Amino acid sequence: MSGFPLSLNGKVDRRALPLPVVQGGSVVVRAGVEAELAGLWAEVLGLSADRIGAGETFFALGGHSLLATQLIARVRRRWGIELSLRALFEHPTLEGLAPVVVAAIAGKDAVQDGGSLQDGGVPLLPDPVPRGPGPVPLSFAQQRLWFLDQLSPGDTAYNQPVALRLTGRLDLGALARALTGLVARHEALRTVFATDQALPVQVILPPGPVDLPLEDLSGAADPMAAAEARLAVLAAEPFDLARGPLLRARVIRLGPEDHLAALVLHHIVSDGWSLGVFLRELAALYEAVLAGRAADLPPLPLQYGDYAAWQRAHLQGPELERQLAYWRSRLAGMPDRLALPTDRPRPAVQSHAGAVMPFDLPAGLTRALEALARRTGTSLHMVLVAVLSVLLARWSGQDDIAIGTPVAGRRHAALEGLIGFFVNTLVLRAGVDAAEPFSALLGRLREDALAAQAHQDLPFDQLVEALQPARDLSHAPLFQVMLALQNAPLGAMAFGGLRLEPAGVAVTATKFDLTFSLQEVPGSLQDLPGQGGLTGAIEYATDLFDAATIARLAAQFRHLAAACAAAPETRIGALPLMDAAERAAVVAGWAPAPPPAARAAETGTGRLDTLVGAAAARHPDRIALRCEGASLTYAALEARANRLAHRMVQLGVGPETRVGLCCERSFEMIVGLLAVLKAGGAYVPLDPEHPDDRLAYMLEDAAPVLVLAQSAQTNRLQSLTPAPVLTLATHPAPETGEPEARSLPETPPETRTTPQNAA
Question: How confident is the model at residue 732 (pLDDT cuts 50, 70, 90)?
């Protein structure tokens, strides 16, 4: 090779490098289906067909789930068969996949979502077609955002801000004409929303000139800082869905050949993939205007309104029921909320106030995670979901973790070049067992992700409607943490001699508690820091979290990911979250210093019952106790202990009084112990395994004013002591079997105990 191929910015273009030739390898000779399949691989991977070896895997050549979906669309278009994503994961080489395609073509088998071939119950996905006359319906995803806007007009959580720094000589008039041409080309960019007979409909406005104002901030003391502040204001301006336009654009001048192009779109007409289409076509149109020619863009076979009408016609009847049945079964019994510890109590109504923190995975770590994915037959996205599941399980104390993840929703090749809101959200559910190796969790998540992809057409809003989770305005339904690995195609762009660089836009709104967004740096922007790794951000709800908490979470994600990649057979419970520096800092923070310890002794803030009460106030929904498959939150533990403590005070328990506690290891034992402390008494442990003579001696010697016992011990203890015996009910009933216990306060009783009193 005479030299390395370079990108537009002078960097090595890795995708253009020839594959290494292995001496003694097989000569690529293909015919029939395998030859055509190689051509389809080459098309979606951006390679030459003769560079694809028969035994090389789709994923080792740069493929991922999104490109796999594009390949499946081309297989459908070419042979009229429905290839599943699972088939490609199980047969990732040309020589392995070609027989699967041949068998499906011949009708010998069907591509199956439970094995290697097509699920016989899954019909061929029909092609979208141009819509007929009449009102244009909303897609299911649009309908959800429209309803949310009706409930909360002016909410900016679904604003999509984008900013590009343009270095070089900019022709503002040419850029305005290019933008006008782009809006004329895509109906979605000139759509507003009205009602027709009480139903929302899309209204496509006629093409017209697009306003592109120029703001000159070059005279500011710090032009970039001033521009960033202006971008934040633009991103936070609400849209009017009925009046439009739902695209705002302006150019900010920083210097003679230094500008920012600021775009804000409403999510109801766009998504992440659409932004790539937007930028590519805007660049092509700008180049064409400068050259005085028509842009070399293919005609669009469909518009977004065609897709919306097709989706409503397709997703009904048996197909709708098939998808619903899967999700009902998969998500049955899922917890209502992930009980992450927060820096502040969760407000009753989610405000969507948010902020963003940069987040990246270095190149070395990313390569290690990709290698793990190849070894395990998974994808990088699956590995990241597994790592995040472990992290969330460790932070929350829960073992049933739900994470939302977006899918492009463009399963037809005809949809790939459109701008519009196609993306859907899938819920991936992981059972995290601390005793099993990470590799076992990853294997289960692989199966879950493939099955979810096979049922991805059910819109998220219909899933929520079908499952009807407990209505709670304090958090998003079904999941509160999202992971998005953005790999929508962008490609190299010529932009009239301008150098493009993404500019950050301050996020002030967020849809979820946490959103992890990562992407590989596109080839045309590879002179940025983090080249070769993953770069992105963590969006977080500022009502719940401080920036320091998110920084710690990000660091632990990186450390945990490195541990998983290095030793995937390690037990999940043994995987480290902290590096040596953080561990040392935490240990140092736990070391008792005399003055605080003395204050704790004086005030009682170090008492067990006080600490549990403080934990219940900070994170009430976090799991406090687990026993035999059941769990008890801090809020429930605190409430039960307080009710029991009030009942004990009524029965004469107070400072310097003793209370017998006869329980097996259970929720009741912990509730009873805390209640004794809250009432001000001292507890006397009574082992139910002891013989009657031993228990009778202990009861006579301790002379308790009250004995707490599980129901199995009540009659026995009543025969051994004159003290009253109070039966502790089993979880989740009130802590005593007495009806009045239900009405007792759930706040701690007032007692006059001191650190010197017996406990």
Answer: very low
